[in-house]
Amino acid sequence: MQKRSSATNGLLTVLITLVIVLMLLTMYQIDRQWLKLGDVQATMTEQAKDIRELRAALASGAVRQQSADANAGTASGISPAFQRAHAMTQQPDYAQGDWSVDAFGTNLKTLTPLVSGDAYASEVQGYVLESLVTRNPDTLAWEGLIAKSWQVSPDGLTITFQMRDDVTFSDGVPLTADDIVFSFQFIMTEAIQAPRQRAYLDKIKEVKANGKYEVVFVYKEPYFEAFDLAGGLSILPKHFYEPYLQKPQEFNESKGLLLGSGPYRLADPKGWRPDAGSVELVRNERYWGDVQPPFNRVLWKIIQNDSARLTTYRNGQIDAYSARPNEYASLKNDAQIMEKSHNFEYMPPVAGYSYIGWNQERDGKPTRFADKRVRQAMSHLTDVSRVIQDIFLGYAEPAVSPFSNTSKQHNTSLQPWEFNLEKAQALLKEVGYEDRNGDGLLEDQAGNPFEFKLTYFEANEDTKRMVLLLKDLYARAGVKLEPFPQEWPVMLESLNKKDFDAITLGWTSGIETDIFQMFHSTQAKTDGDNSISYKNPELDKLIDQARATVNEAERMPLWQQAERIMVDDQPYTFLMRRQSLSFVDKRIQNLQMTKLGLNRGSLPLENYVPAAMQKYTQ
Questions:
Q1: Distance in Å from the first CA to the final CA of the chain
Q2: Quick one: residue 77, left, alpha or beta (phi over 0 = left, psi -120 to 50 = alpha)?
Q3: Nearest of 313, 316, 310, 320 to residue 344 by alpha carbon
Q4: DSSP letters of 382-424?
Q5: Which of 60, 69, 76, 290 has the greatest number of CB atoms lying within 10 Å of its CB?
Q6: 393-417 pLDDT, tens per residue?
Q7: Cα-flanking dihedrals φ and ψ of residue 457, to 5°?
Q8: Strand pairing partners for 585?
Q9: Is the bond preceding 604 in cis, omega lying within 30 degrees of 0?
Q10: In this structure, are residues 453 and 316 in contact, taking their beta carbons and an 8 Å threshold?
């Protein structure tokens, strides 16, 4: 009886558990249906609003044929900026739909424009925010995006843009010259946390609107990147961001305030949070562009572990994988990887550089790295050639300075600093560092040991291996390096507050690099990008002169003089520029190399997935 009773109770328990599981599954499906219904209702509401506005415009006679100027110079009626994207749509297997899915190796602190300061947030913002002009990736010439034409005054101080009149933000509100004026004024508001942007826009005297679709930039003085600065300004919708002028602290502390006119949008322009575990953008159904974006969604998963990212790519859950040097050769011999992948191995034309930054001032007091001889000694101790060979297996080249070796800014007579233990020891002895107690560690004249923490991003295995190699190299000279790994948001906070001894990071580069924000003494302030508090009046003067010199032939010698000072001063120990070792899923089509690098993710988007290869249905 007892056994039968036990069996009966067990059966009842199983049945009850099954009922509960079925109820939970039903509730989950209902929740999903409600969410889906909510999305449909939101879309229908937006469409109804658009229809009402269109009817009103028709009734008032306000609707007219699109200005021919917007498509001037093209037989197809497609403006130049969209010609490459249009060519994509003419491929025999072209199809809209599916998702673009990538991975970030770190979580993002914020997506809010201006407040964010890293390349990951900028990548996301590029799909949402737009500017007046863009560069052609083949010719590098400027092409109108929201601007359809422009004029530059003979003295270069006034730039006037005529705008398209058919552009709207993703919420349907028209984009006008007032939004561009607002974007400038918003950035220049001291209460808004945008010191980096203000440092550049300070060159501009005023931005004014001449009617709804013409905007004028007036500069205080000549600036070699005046057109780039004005035409590349990210346009913020006034109606969305203006309320934050009354509550700037809320804006500065926000995590996901992102709305623009671009091909994609956040489903909720105020709703993203760092704990979301991903960043997901949906198609902007109101997109004004001459070519509609190919993907329904653009998604970045947060996968901090290198091995996990590779496994995720291997399983087809992300579309691309940037290989580490120590795994690249084996992956090229991996039949499963190669069968599913396009493979790209190249040095990006605008490759950024990695460096070690020596903090020269902390808590208002100079550090040991304020002495140029100490920085020079550390560069002699940093065996960059060995780092490239042992850690990056030759898939990199030494960086001489912030200027690419192929740039006109670079002085070809300058060479990277070489590893030289004897010279390093001599420089440190000259400063007063000696092993005074026989423990193998250098001390200064007051007996303080030469030891410091090197801050680095904890999730990057190659950087970790490099730091451990440097620890051994420095120890040979009696210098103690203490590895100090940090999470990305914490690391950025330390950088902004200048709360570190030394730090290893990377910096992006462009066709021509303006070094003002990294090395000019005026930017050695809280939240400024001169995070190491480096100051050199002679370099400041050259930077100012170069930036004010519009003529390229006259400007390049000034940059080269500035480069010579930086190479001698070693504010950074410049490490390397790394090659891209990329695998991209073969479902992604129309991949091409350009003068700006691989066109995957370039905007307007030029990649697509053929209908037969699509796997995401919504």
A1: 56
A2: left
A3: 320
A4: --HHHIIIIISTT-EEE--SSS-TTSTTS-TT--PPPP-HHHH
A5: 290
A6: 999 999 999 999 889 999 999 999 9
A7: -75, 120
A8: 341
A9: yes
A10: no
